[in-house]
Amino acid sequence: MSLLFAPPFYRVTDNLNAPIPGGFVGFFATQTTTPQAVYADAALTIALQNPVQADGDGNLPAVWLDDSLPKYKYIIYEPDQVDPTVPGSVIRSGDPYNADLNYSAVLPVIHPVTTAEAAAGVLASSVNFLYSVGHVYRYGTNTNPGTTDMTVAINTAANVCRQGNYVLQLPADILLVSGSVDFSNITVKGLGGVWGGSGYIKRSSGSTFDIVTSTGGTILQDMRVDGGNSGATAGLTGDNISFKATSPAHPYLNTLINVSSTNARGRCCYIERGGYTSFFHVQFLTAGLHALECYAASVADENTTIRDYGSSQFGSCPNGFGIKLTESVSCAFHDSIIENTWGIQLNGQDNRALTFDGVYQEVTQGTVFTGQIVGTTLTVLSIVSGPPLTLGCGLSSGVAANTAITAYGTGTGGIGTYTVSVSQSAGPGQMNGSQMFINDNGGGVGLIIRGCFGGNVNMPPLANWQNVYYQGNSNLSEGPIPSAGRIQTNSAGQGSVSATGDVTAAQLSLAPGTYRLSGVVQTIVSSGGGSATQLACQITTNSAASGLSNSVSSLVEGAAQTQSFGASQDARVSAFTEIQVFSTTTYYLRAHIALTGTITEAYNGQLRAELIE
Predict the structure, then answer these.
(1) Is it true that domain 185-197+206-365+435-485 has CATH number 3.40.50?
(2) What region does 62 belong to: left with phi over 0, alpha with psi -120 to 50, or beta?
(3) Per-residue pLDDT reduced to its tens digit, 445-487
C-alpha cells in the first residue's frame, strides 16, 4: 500500500522551524544509505527524483511512500551553497520514519508548536499537527464546510501569522464566518487557485459585519469572499473587504492579486483614507451598493496612490457605482471593466491626478425620475431609480430634443430644481436621464480619460476640473463619446452698423479649464451709397475693445485677422487662440468695421470654445 509522507504536504524547515526555500528531503531504507523509491501519486506509478527538492516557500510536492518496502529513513538537507540544485549540509534526520507509524507522536515533531503560536496563546492540545503553521485547519476543524463556524480558527491563524511572519493558508473549502476576520499586516493565500477556486470565506446569513478587515499591510492572493447577497437590495450594511484605520493612522500598503469579492451586502471593497494599494486581476462583482469605494472626508486626509493594473472587473451593482472616488489623489485604473453599474462617480472638490486609461464600460444605468419643466427650470419630484443627476446629463421621454442639465438650482443630484438647455413645457411625469460614463459630483486638478470604451454613455462637462486630458475615447455604436458641454458656441445674431466702429459679434462665459477658441465674423448685406473698406476681429476679455489687432486693449494674443475690401463686397475674418481659464471669465468676439459714405453694413458672428483640458 501507499503512504503519504507528512500529509497533506510537507514544508522543509530548519531547526527553528523556519522554511528552507529549495531544501531537500532524501529517502533511504532504514539504517542504510541506500535510496528508496518515492512517488508523486498514491498508485505509486510516477517516481519522484530522490532527494526531493522543495519550492521557493519550502513546500514539497505530495510524496508517497511504498509501505511494502523496508521502513524509510529520511534526511533533511539545506541547498548546497555553491550549487543550490543539489543537497548541501544535513539539517536533521528521522529513522525509521514509518515504523508502526503513530501520527500523533510523529507530526508534533514535524510541525511543532512555534514561539509565534505560543505568543498568540495557542496550546498544543488545540493544534491539529497534520497541518503546518498558518494553515486554518491547524486551529479548527471544518466539520461541515459552509455550516461550521470558522471565525475563531481564521482569526487564530491570522494572529499567529502576525506574530511569526507566516503566510495564512486558506483551504479550498467553504469557510463560514459569523464575525470579522482581521488580516492586518499579514499575507493570505488561498490554496484553491485563482480567485479561490471552489474555496471561499462566506458570511453567515443575515449578519451585518464587514467580513475581511485590515488596518493596512495586507497581501491577499488567490482567494474569494462571498457576502451572500444578490445585490438587488440596496441600503444594507456590511462590506466584503474593508480597509480602515483609526485616525491619524492610514490603512496603507495593501495588495490584492487574483482576489474575488462577490455578493456584498454593502460594498465589495471599501477603502477609507487609504493609500499605496494595488489591484491585480481582481473581481468585485454584485453588491448592494458599490463595487469599489475609496472615501476621504477632506483632501488633508485623502486617499492616495490606489492603482488597478488591469483586467479587473467592477460590476453588477444595480444600486451603485462600479468605482466611486471621494477626495482622492494619484489614483489610476488601467484596462478595468465596468458593467451593469451606475458608472464612475467622482466626489469632493480637491481631487488630484486621477487616471482612467483603457476602461471598458457597458450597460451603464441612467436615471429614471419624475419631474416637470417650465421654461428652462426642471423640478425633480422624485428619483425612481439610477444614479444622481449631474451636469451634462441628457434628458429624454416627454421632453424636447437636445435637452440637458446645464446648472444646479436647489437640486444637486436628487429632488430639487435644475436649469436645462432648452426652454419648454413638459410634465409632470416620468423622465429619463442619460447614461453617464462619469457621474461628476466633484472637482480638482488633473484628470486623464484616455482610450476608454463606453456603451452609449455621455461624458459630463467636468466644469470644476482643471487640466483635463481627454483623448481617444469611443462609443459602441455612436463613434466618439458625446462630451456634454465640452463644445460651446454663441452667436449674437445679425446686426448692422452705419458708421465706422466696433461691435460685439458673440460672447461666451467660460468656466476654469483650457480651451481652443475660434471666432468668425462675416459681412452679409449692405445698403446705401458708400462702401465697407475694412473688417477685423479679435477675441478679448474687454467688452469695449476694438476689433483691430493694433488696438490698445486686453486682447488675447495672436487672435486677430484684418481684411480690406472694396464696395459691394462681402468679407469674412476669423480669430484663433488657446487659453487657460483660472476663474469663470467672459470672452468677447469684437469686430471692427470701417465704412465710407452713407452705407449700412449687416454682419453676423460666432464664437466657439472647445474644452481640451
Answers:
(1) no
(2) beta
(3) 899 998 888 875 777 777 778 888 888 888 754 445 555 556 7
